[in-house]
Amino acid sequence: MDGEQAVNTMTDVGNRPAARRGVFSRRVSGILEPYYYVSPALVLIVAVMLMPLILGLSYAFRDIRILNPFSGGFVGLAHFQTLMHDSAFLGALVNTAWWTFGSLFFQFTLGLVLALLLNRHFVGRRLVQALVFLPWAVPTFLSGLNWAWMFNPVVGPLPHWMVSLGIMETPFNILSDPDLAMWGPIVANIWFGIPFFAITLLAALQSIPGELYEAASIDGANTRQQFFSITIPFLAPTIAITLMLRTIWIANFADLIVVMTKGGPADSTQIVASYIFTQAFRRLDFGYASAIAAVLLVLLLAYALGVIALRRAMTHADS
Amino acid sequence: MASIEITNARKSYGAVDVLHGINLDIQDGEFIVLVGPSGCGKSTLLRMIAGLEDITSGDISIGGTVINDLQPKDRDIAMVFQSYALYPHMSVAENMSYALTLRKTAKEKVASAIENVAGVLGLNALLERRPKALSGGQRQRVAMGRAIVRQPQAFLFDEPLSNLDARLREQMRTEIRKLHRRLGATSVYVTHDQIEAMTMADRIVAMYNGIVQQVGTPLEIYDRPANIFVASFIGSPAMNFLEGIYQAEGDKAAITLEDGTVIPVLPSPQAENGQHITLGARPEHIDIVQDGSRPAVSSNVELIEPMGLSTLVHVTLAGKPVKIFTLARPDLAIGSQVQIAFNMDKTHIFDRQSEQRLLPLNEPRHTQQT
Amino acid sequence: MSTPGNSALRKTVYWGTHYLMIAAFVVFALFPLYWLLKVSVTPNDILYTEGVRMWPSRTTWDNYTFVMTQSNFPHYFMNSVIVSGSTAFFTCIIAAVTGYAFSRFRFRGKIIIVALMLITQMFPLVMLIAPIFRILAPLGLTDSLTGLIIVYTAFNVPFATFLMQSFFDGIPKDLEEAAMIDGNTRFEAFRRIILPLTLPGIAATLGFVFTAAWSELLFALMLVSSESASTFPVGLLSFVSKFGVDFGQMMAAGVLALIPACAFFLLIQRYLVQGLTAGAVKG
Ligand SMILES: Nc1ncnc2c1ncn2[C@@H]1O[C@H](COP(=O)(O)OP(=O)(O)OP(=O)(O)O)[C@@H](O)[C@H]1O
Ligand SMILES: [Mg+2]
Asked: Where in the sequence is the signal peptide annotated (chain C) (predicted)?
């Protein structure tokens, strides 16, 4: 040292811990550490979701009817063969596409518009934000009942408004018209689902650094150019992931349909998820219901993987 | 207080080796500065000492005890982070007493320790504030205070001053130095600022690419850099480098530059005639010779930067830029020729291949480490 | 370029449109709730005759008094509070530790667990009812609030975990490292330093899960058969069968049931946006 006499003002020197307390044990506990944290979630998910899923998939190959004491045997692919010729199922498949993409399109566009509106500062924004997000908190079956009520020409205002707007000749309940019935649950679903998109997109919007817009406006970009050159590219990843997750979620979401139309009239609003429900709990045929569910799961997985592959291909093409 | 020994410490992230076998003995009470460019592994080494990163292989011991496998909390060290890492939901006093309360220190003892340290750092008026309500410099002091109250075996600093403005940084530099003098605690200080390294260190550890390039006192490092990296990294304005060929005859030696200019140097037993070398000379070791009193070479004036106290003259020699530092205020015209002379005793030669410095005859081989 | 007058006009038009659209969204969001309220205060005898009027000529609290005093509703309500509250509580704890691990550790099994969590979001849940019943029945967890809490917690953990992770991602790692050097183990540092800093995130997650559990109908209907363990959505459906379809009472019950969910949600929706933003910044 360079001749400097250090003055020690320290009083107690900490206890020197014992040397090498098992190299091995610390290495192992270091590797295991993350698993201590995730184990409760893992146990729960495996026990309450994964095991039932596997059990459920096995039902698809068995004859399981609750009220029939002789059921329970393996039937191989019989359910799937029946399914191929089940016109109600094929109809439900088409309806599912309608229901999903009809709801999704409006939920997304209106959610995006709402997020953009809320992303500007204005008087009363906090209050407005709280109010417009409220539908998300309403129990779905309650909103289903309420919307069914509002579509009813005797007790609801909607048919009368549509007549005044000239969309309808005389007030009638669209929920009982096989051609239009699907729009009932879709409207309810749009109402319920806008907040989800608005919240996620608003969060994404707020994470765009403000300097980007400043830089762009200095470069002479007008509002529209800024929207397409900054906002949309920044939102793209959020949009892609939420659209995908939401598609799957809506395809599985039968509550509103079960409450509002029970799949009717004449199966015109029967989607696959509600069809499963009908098979399982009206006909008590769990084997067949599980077979349908398995097909739906496979279709949704294929859809998800397809979207992911497409995205990957597109980002690779870009770069 | 304790010494720290690092033997053959390596660190890899998967297939990427970040530290390639570090050996370092830090004396009890020494103030060591780890310096090097961004990404060279300084923080990684410091965090290995702290226990925040696993040691891939090798040993680190504090006070003679190998601490490789101890939790950070059992190593009895304190660390000051670049971001300060003050607990936002605690007051200044709570931040400083946190470690002591965890050690179940008696209340009165904690209170007096805090009062003591707050007095030293001038934090008395701020004790009840939250970190959010402090300025950058105050936060820095609190972070220092939090480390000091613990009276640990060693202090670790990871670029603690880099978020401060120039003036405050200068002030804190002296203050940390004074504190060290007072506490005498073993300290390892990471920075990429060579001025901090020069002014604060008892010994500097210059690192590059996960390898210790040289260990030595600031002046050793400055005067006798082990290789081109250390020579170029330490010193501002930076050392000038020129490429040429070594030629020696008897007790005289010289470098012939690409354009035939000959510059005399001290002969080195490590160099051979005809060897490709890089010549290095600090700007203050090149003189402008206007009266022909010394043998000199001719160069072309490119730019003159007056800096008040001194002047920096940019010239070209053999097609390469050369900076000259002078306390005089030479009267030169841009574009004119000027005679310059290299201070032979202070001019270094480096092997161009290995980039190691070739030592002159009478210099002992010490402080070298690769 | 444009004159000042021109740009002022443009500004007025812009903000006019802005507020108009905002108003449209607010009306769209609130009108159905308003209608719910309206039906619940309409006396039974004019429910159908004045069905389409914007506000009935007479109003009454009868439906509310009936629901509160004559029906099982307060009991259902309590069950729902217990189930949703416990679900929110346990989900938050589990999601917090899991989200923390996702945010701070790199480990081999992570990608598998994340994939598992994503796939669980794709299940048609209906399909799980029978198998879950099968698994819970021998444990005595069917027809019990505990069983419902376990199932709800499992269903909510994946999303809550991703939400919590995004909050943790917004908190610098230096903080728990400082705490670990100060003398904490990692878990203590997590509990004493990191968790207090994520309180808004925890509030958001609590509210989110509470609302979700509060609304759940399918499993509540299928796993519970006795009156004593029914939650409020099931109870609400029982209005349909028991009293004929007494819409007034049902809507009154609905309005009452809305109150806790909405109150909770109003409190936390701001943090929800903030939390998602914090995560997004990190990438
Ligand atoms: N988790 C990691 N995985 C892979 N590589 C890493 C990781 N952490 C650090 N590195 C690499 O290790 C090297 C050394 O990093 P380190 O942070 O020690 O540099 P540094 O010398 O402190 O630089 P700076 O002055 O910028 O702080 C860098 O090249 C970095 O990219
Ligand atoms: Mg660093």
From this structure: none
The gap from C-alpha A117 to its chain's centroid, in whole angstroms, comes to: 23
Using only the alpha carbons of chain B, give its radius of gyration. Answer: 25
- Among B50, B52, B87, select the one facing C175 at the smallest CB separation: B87
Sheet holding B320-326, edge to edge: B286-288, B337-342, B297-306, B311-317, B320-326
Q: Name every chain B residue with its beta carbon within 8 A of the beta carbon of C175.
A: 85, 87-88
Query: Can you give the pTM of this predicted structure?
Result: 0.83
Residue C12: domain span: 4-40
CA–centroid distance, B38 to ligand 2, in Å, is: 7
C264 in any annotated domain: yes
Specify if C244 maps to a domain: yes
The answer to whether residues C85 and C24 belong to one domain is no
Confidence of residue A133 (pLDDT cuts 50, 70, 90): confident
| Residue A172 pLDDT class (50, 70, 90 cuts) | confident
pLDDT per residue, tens digit, chain C (283 aa), is 445 567 788 888 888 899 999 999 999 999 999 988 888 888 877 877 777 777 888 888 888 888 888 888 888 889 999 999 999 999 999 999 999 999 999 888 888 998 888 888 777 777 788 888 888 888 988 888 999 999 999 999 998 898 888 888 888 899 999 999 999 999 999 999 999 888 878 888 888 888 889 888 888 888 888 888 888 888 877 776 555 567 788 888 888 888 887 787 777 777 767 666 654 433 3
CA distance A32 to A26: 10
CA of B42, closest atom in ligand 1 = 21
End-to-end CA distance of chain B: 28
C115 with C212, same domain? yes
* Contact list, A202 vs chain C (CB under 8 Å): 273
pLDDT band at B18 (very low <50, low <70, confident <90, very high): very high
Backbone phi and psi for residue C66, each to the nearest 5 degrees, phi listed first: -60, -50
Q: How far is A309 from chain B (nearest CA, A)?
A: 28
Rg (CA), chain C: 24
Chain C interface test: which of A44, A235, A274 (most C C-beta within 10 Å)? A44
Please give the helix or strand (H or E) that residue B226 lies within, else none.
Answer: none
Residues C222, C97 within the same domain = yes
Which of C109, C123, C262 is the closest to A297 by Cβ?
Answer: C123
User: Could you tell me if C157 and C34 lie in one domain?
Assistant: no
> Is the CB of B42 inside a 6 Å radius of any atom of ligand 1?
yes
Domains, chain B, ordered by start: 4-231 (3.40.50.300), 232-367 (2.40.50.140)
- Does residue C62 fall inside a structural domain? no
C10 with C84, same domain: the answer is no
Q: Do C178 and B85 touch (CB under 8 A)?
A: yes
CATH number of the structural domain A80-318: 1.10.3720.10
Q: Which residues, in sequence order, are CB contacts of B147 under 8 Å at separation 6+?
A: B78, B79, B80, B155
So where are chain A's domains? 3-59, 80-318
Instruction: Say if the Cβ atoms of A7 and B152 lie within 8 Å.
Output: no
Q: Is B40 in the pocket of ligand 1 (CB under 6 A)?
A: yes
C31 & C138 share domain:
no
Angle at B237 between CA B236 and CA B238, to 5 degrees: 85
Does residue A8 surpass a pLDDT of 60?
no
Spatial strand order in the sheet of B4-13: B16-26, B4-13, B57-62, B65-66
* ipTM of this predicted structure: 0.83
